[in-house]
Every structure is written in C-alpha cells, then in structure tokens.
C-alpha cells in the first residue's frame, strides 16, 4: 500500500518534479552499483564471502538461466515457487472471501466463527511450519497449505469489513427492484466491496510470498527459498544474491500487475467519489 | 437476554465446542496417533513438565528468554535507525528522492529471506538472528514514520515557520510530536513482524529459543511440544503488542487526539 501512496502523492503533489525524482533515484542506484563494482571487483576490498563481486553475480545469474543448480535452473526454481504461491493464494481467495462475506452478513456466523478465527490468527503463519511438516511431510501440499495459512486471514478480514461496511440502503434498493439473493450478491455486494477485497489481496500476496520462501528455506527440494539456503550451505553468496533479487522482482511484479489489472475495475468508484 | 449477550454466549459456546472436539478427536475417538494429534490435556501436561525439565538443554522459560532477548535487541536497533530515517524521508524531499528507489527495491524481499546471508556472515549466533529481526522490523518503522510526517497538517508547519521557528525547531517542536502517535503504531507493527520472523529464523539458525525447540520437536515427532510452542508464540505476541500499547498511552497522555480514536 505504502509504496504506491508514496508514488501517487508524489505525482499529484509535485508534477513538475517527477523527472528530477526519477533522475535522483537512478543516480542513487547507479552510484551504489558503481561503488559495489569499484570496491568489490576492482579494488577487492569487500571479502567475496561477505559480498561477491558484481561481475560474478551477473555471470552466475546468466549461468543459472541455462544450467541447473540443485536440480533446477533459475526459471525451474522460480516456477516451483510461483506454483506454490499461486495455488495457496487461490485457495485463500476461494475459501476466505465467501467466509468473510458470510461472517459480515450474518451476525450469528460472526459470533460462531470470529472467536475461533481470532484465536488461530494470533499464531503467526510461520509458526505453523514445524507442525505442517510433521503432519504432511515435505512437498507441494505442505507448502501450499502454509501459503494458505498466511494469505487466508487478510482475505477473510477484508471481505468481512467490506460486507459490514456496505450501505444497507443500496441492498434494499436492489431488493425492491426485484433482484434475487444471488443477483444482490453478484451485482451489488461484490462490486461494492471490490476495493476492500483488492487491498486484502495485496496483503495476502505479500504474506504468501513470505510463507513460500520460509517453507522452502526450512524444507523443500526446489524453489527460490531452497536455492538461497543451498547457496549458503555451499558457501556461494553469488547464488544467494541472485535468488534474493529474483524474489524481489517477483514481489514487485505481482504488486504492480495487481494495481494495473484492478485500476480499470475501480474506475467507476473513483468517479463516484467526486460527487 | 439482549441480542448482544446471546451472541456473546454463542461465541463462548463455539470456543468450548472447538476445544471439546479437539479432545474427543484425540483422546476419545483417536482419529490420529497421539504423536501427530496430542489431546489438549497432553499439551497442558507437557507445558507443565517443560517448566521444570530442560528440553534440548533449556527449560521452557530459558527458551523463551533466549527468543525475547533477540527480538527486543533487533527491534530496538530497527527503531533507532528506521524511525529517524522515515522522518527524514518525510521531511526532506531531496533525501527521499535519492533513497526511496533503493528502499523500494529491497522491500519486497520477505525478511526471512535474509537468513542465508545472516548465517553466512554471522554463523549460528544470536547476531545472525538479531540481523534478521532488524531486517523485519526496519521497513514498518521507516514507512510509518514517513507517512506520519507526510500526514502532518501543512498549516501547522506554516504557522510555526511564520512565527519564526527554524526548520529544525519546527521539526522537533511541531512535526515529530504531531506525528508521534502514528510513528509509535509503526514500531508496534514492527515488533509483531519481527517476532514472527524470529521464530522462523530460529528454525534454521539457533541452538536455543522457542523456534529451535519446535524444530527439534518436529524431527523427534513430538507434536505436543510443537503445540506448546505455537500457543506460547501466539500469547506472547498478544502480550507484547498490549504492553507496548499500554506504554505508548502513557507517553501520549498529553495527546488528546490519539485518545479519541
């Protein structure tokens, strides 16, 4: 949420300074890379065990694209992580959103589920890792479950608050116009709470990425988390850097894609706010 | 009975029923072997046992103490570095424009992914875990301090400047006090994130601590010990958040606005 609010506020508040902001950001990044190159590669002042030379990281990244390491190429590991991440998120959406809607809609369901939900939620998702492995062993099911555990609460909570926050007059209006229960849900409730669901999904994506990496670090035989912990065990810091940068890139891409996809969906709401 | 009380009774019944089902499934119906699904009674007895008997070299309190020291140390470092940096980002546009892209590049990396580097640089030491905790607590401190400062009403800043206050005095006397409630919320969020990340880091890089205890219990098929750990982690997380909120309320006692919320 914050990156974008920062960026958006910047754009609206200081339209003319955007080019300088971009230049300054680029200058800082280039300066950092240059410092890394000069002190690491040229002068050799940074021990390779601490941080490998920049050129070595670049060549490792290139090699990893074609040559497998620890069973997979870079894209192979990436694909494994993405699969686990995606399936877990999908489960969280498919189960979490209806549950949150029901809890927000029916007071009794809220009273039954909320205390259990809140009690379980107080256990951080990563603390489930040992029990999940004990119960299900290592494999796709375990990792997907852990992603689900991490992504489920934000989906439920946001669907819940979305449903609670809906103006009952809108629903009444639909009902008096003859909309049945399904139509009320599909055409009134879901669109109205879409912004809330999307912010829930953003949190869920972040939590899910954390869970998949943690699960792969502790026990897996593939994936980006596995790649970086193998890099540590084999004393190959260049692999760790490549793995971490890949993780950063997929996190950034997922967030950006979500914003781009959902912006048209939310447009009607933005115009609505102006009245 | 009012509707509210009836719903409250439903909530209590729901929790009681859930624990009862857990008990029936484990101790009475024996749906799963007790190493996999221990009953609530077994977990409670194990908890009492662990208070007096060392497991993997430490009693339960010693494991907890090891974890708490690391999380508090890392959190303090993150607050001391992250909050001033966030305030600086919010106050000085040039500084923000230079450093923000770098910050945003690193931010999507889940903090736990720093564990391999922590191990490489520090080995299996408390230092490695403190490093991971700092990485977890740092971003929430920076972001909330930044947004708190950006959220200060420009009219307040203008008034102070017109009255002749220097930029530094305005920052110290107006901006930071006004932003403080939000900054403190950020440090509280940071502690929650740091606590979870630490437990995960202890699965990989520790020889004491609550996560280490759970990791050993996992390889020894002792689900009761894992559950003792999970429950304690949850309770301690709630307790820490509560204590910080309580402490912050005393700090913010002059601040009427934050009490109304």
From TrEMBL, chain A:
Alphabetical UniProt keywords = Cell membrane, Membrane, Transmembrane, Transmembrane helix, Transport
Membrane topology field: Multi-pass membrane protein
Which Gene3D superfamilies does this entry report, sorted A to Z? MetI-like
User: One Pfam annotation, family name?
Assistant: BPD_transp_1
InterPro entries the record matches? MetI-like (IPR000515), MetI-like_sf (IPR035906)
Q: Where in the cell is it found?
A: Cell membrane
Q: Name one GO biological process term.
A: transmembrane transport
Q: Which residues form the ABC transmembrane type-1 domain?
A: 78-258
User: Transcription regulation: is it a keyword of this entry?
Assistant: no
Question: Which residue stretches, if any, does this entry annotate as coiled coil?
Answer: none
Any single GO CC term annotated in Swiss-Prot or TrEMBL for this entry: plasma membrane
**Mind telling me which residue stretches traverse the membrane in this protein?**
25-46, 85-106, 126-152, 241-261
Source species, domain of life: Bacteria
Major place of residence = membrane
Cell wall biogenesis/degradation in keyword set:
no
**Entry's family note:** Belongs to the binding-protein-dependent transport system permease family.
The name of this protein is ABC transporter permease
Organism of origin = Agromyces fucosus
């Amino acid at each position: 949420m914050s990156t974008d609010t920062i960026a958006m506020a910047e754009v609206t508040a200081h339209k003319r300074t955007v080019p300088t902001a971009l230049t300054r950001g680029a200058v800082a990044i280039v300066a950092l890379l240059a410092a890394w190159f000069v002190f690491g590669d040229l002068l050799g002042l940074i021990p390779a065990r601490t941080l490998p030379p920049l050129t070595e990281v670049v060549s490792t990244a290139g090699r990893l694209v074609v040559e497998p390491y620890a069973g997979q190429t870079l894209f192979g590991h990436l694909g494994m992580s993405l699969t686990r991440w995606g399936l877990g998120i999908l489960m969280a959406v498919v189960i979490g959103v209806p549950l949150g809607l029901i809890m927000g809609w029916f007071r009794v369901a809220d009273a039954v589920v909320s205390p259990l939900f809140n009690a379980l939620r107080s256990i951080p998702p990563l603390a489930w890792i040992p029990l999940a492995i004990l119960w299900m062993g290592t494999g796709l099911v375990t990792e997907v479950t852990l992603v689900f555990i991490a992504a489920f609460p934000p989906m439920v909570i946001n669907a819940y608050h979305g449903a609670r926050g809906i103006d009952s007059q809108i629903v009444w209006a639909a009902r008096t116009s003859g909309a049945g229960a399904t139509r009320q849900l599909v055409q009134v409730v879901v669109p109205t709470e879409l912004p809330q669901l999307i912010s829930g999904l953003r949190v869920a994506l972040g939590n899910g990425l954390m869970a998949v990496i943690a699960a792969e670090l502790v026990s897996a035989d593939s994936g980006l988390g596995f790649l970086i912990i193998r890099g540590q065990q084999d004393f190959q810091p260049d692999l760790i850097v490549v793995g971490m940068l890949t993780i950063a890139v997929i996190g950034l891409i997922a967030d950006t894609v979500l914003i781009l996809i959902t912006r048209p969906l939310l447009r009607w709401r933005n115009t609505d706010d102006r009245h | 009975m009012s509707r509210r009380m009836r719903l409250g009774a439903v909530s209590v019944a729901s929790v009681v029923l859930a624990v009862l089902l857990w008990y029936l499934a484990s101790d009475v119906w024996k749906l799963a072997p007790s190493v996999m699904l221990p009953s609530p009674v077994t977990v409670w007895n194990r908890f009492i046992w662990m208070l007096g008997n060392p497991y993997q070299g430490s009693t339960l309190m010693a494991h907890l103490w090891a974890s708490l020291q690391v999380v508090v140390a890392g959190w303090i470092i993150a607050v001391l570095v992250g909050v001033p940096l966030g305030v600086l980002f919010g106050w000085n546009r040039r500084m923000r424009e230079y450093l923000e892209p770098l910050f945003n590049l690193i931010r999507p990396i889940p903090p736990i992914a720093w564990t391999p580097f922590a191990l490489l640089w520090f080995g299996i030491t408390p230092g490695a875990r403190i490093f991971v905790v700092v990485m977890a607590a740092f971003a929430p401190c920076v972001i909330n301090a930044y947004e708190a400062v950006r959220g200060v009403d420009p009219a307040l800043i203008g008034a102070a400047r017109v009255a002749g206050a220097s930029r530094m005095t305005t920052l110290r006397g107006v901006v930071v006090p006004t932003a403080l409630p939000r900054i403190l919320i950020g440090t509280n969020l940071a502690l929650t994130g740091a606590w979870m990340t630490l437990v995960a880091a202890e699965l990989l890089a520790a020889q004491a601590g609550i996560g280490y205890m759970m990791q050993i219990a996992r390889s020894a098929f002792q689900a009761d010990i894992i559950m003792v750990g999970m429950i304690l982690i949850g309770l301690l997380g709630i307790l820490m958040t509560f204590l910080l909120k309580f402490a912050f309320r005393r700090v913010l006692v002059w601040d009427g606005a934050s009490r109304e919320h």
